[in-house]
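Let's practice the habit of predicting before peeking. Look at the sequence and jot down your guess about where helices and strands might fall. Then scroll down.
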Amino acid sequence: MTLIFQLCLTSSFAIRAFAVLAGGIVLALCWVFLRSTSSPLAAFPGPDPQDWIFGNLLEVFESEHGAPHERWAEKYGHVFVYQCLFGEKRLSTIDAKALNHILLEKAELYPRTPSDLRELDHSLGHGIASAQGEPHRRQKKMLLPFFSPTQLKEASPMFEEKSQQLCSILRQMLEDNDSSSKNDKNMIVDMYAWFNRVTLDIIGQAGFGHSFNSLLGEDHVTRALNRLFCSGAFQYTGITFLIRTAVREFTFLQKFIRTQRTKAMKEALRILTEQGWKIYEARHSEVTSGLEKDKKDLITLLIRENSKTTSGDKLREDEIMSQISTFIAAGSETTATSLSWATWLMTRYPEVQVKLRNELLNALEKCPTGSLEPEMIYSLPYLDAFCREVLRFIPPATSMLRQAISSDQIPLSTPVTLRNGDIVNSIPIQKGQTILIPISAYNRSKSVFGPTADQFDPERWMSKNSEREGDSGVSISGQAVGLWAGLLSFGTGPKSCIGYKFSVMEMKVILAHLLLEFKFEERDPGGGPLIERRANSVVRPRIAGKKNGAEMPLRISFWKQ
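Done guessing? Here is the structure:
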């Protein structure tokens, strides 16, 4: 009798538990359904969700980065909506008027998402990348003088010195390589790794007056950056995506969810923070003791000017220190990635590489000193066109995410036809709505850059017969919203990249020195391996099929045989 009673109780409990679970699932499904259909954005064109849980997100993260948004913009037009987790509708647009509204005119209404800000703050501290509102205004005001034309000119010798050092190392590697014949010296080099080292050394000297010596093998900071931004960056499954999203949205879970990636990130943050404080304390000591009179690096200038400031613009000590980790990441990683893609594109378009080298050789013949000065390099038209096209075709980041802090109506330059056939001239926005701005889709938009926008062609920047010319002659139809060259590669508005001129100048000098010594080819004769765009904050190169790790293996040789 007792056994029967216990079984009845157990059975009754199981039934109730099952009923509660089933009811919860039904309610959750109803919530997802209502969320996905009740949004005013549901009427806008866009891809159908692949499933109710992930929507279209798995396609976004499993594809080459930026590719789905490029396809959707081509198919659905300059405004489209896709589905995220549990029915959330995400707006995406490349409409010029809408972008100006979001990024310029009403930028204060569309800050970064809270989860993005938390992650930036956790990774890079309270620097200019994560600052919003008044703190951002104060920091930008204090930092802008470092990026003046005069200060940028001061950095040119450092670009040249480190470029020559990189060339010297690669030259020695080729000379010492026994696997190739004496008359045909060539070898496979991971250019991504070397570009990371040279750009880190440059930002160390120009930004902080500090020698990282990464080119000489002291690369613990480089390894820390790779762990911070590459660890787990290319491994996405449904479960891992859910876990990462949960940890991003609910930071208290970090105490309970410890993965290999979180451990690697924690160690990387420790190294960067420790390095940042060492640099700050060294520069602060020099300023207070009067030993820094001849130093013109960013942190020294910032500490010096901040010490003179008595107004509310004065920066806190942790805000100054956070600029170090911010510029280590932003000042080296993004440029290194762009340089990697630049050399890769040279291998895909060898005629472009030849034309670049010929331009440099012609300029060198006219140079009385026998070596190209940085100022001459900056003015070379085809090199300038090439750098613009690289940054257009493969921008350092493929998207920007914003979240509305109040209801709004976003105006459109071109009307949109809704799913039911209605035509609208604006987009209704509710408070909390997330908006993804697909940089790569905008940069490859045929409505902006013409019918060949999906092709790599530096010549587009050399033409002078455009409907509306960009600042180097590129055909830009209608409105262009980008900070630089009509591109969104460096953003636009108050949150645009403050160091974009520094990055472009650095890129030109490094490429010029490399091209005058080396020839770049694909790793394997006849093409290959397939290199993909993969991102975790920055679009890094990855060999297709490899689960983790960024690399750009290319075959290099002396161009003079």
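How did you do? The mean pLDDT is 85.
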